[in-house]
Amino acid sequence: MTDAPDMREQYEHALAEVMEMKRALAEHSRHVAALERQLMRQVEEGARGTARETGRARREPAGPEPTQSDLARAVAEAEAEKALATAERERLDERERNIRRVERELASLRVELERQWRRATGSAPTPSQPSEPGPETKPPSPTPLPTPPSEPDLEPAATAPRRTTRRK
Question: pTM for this structure?
Answer without folding.
Answer: 0.36
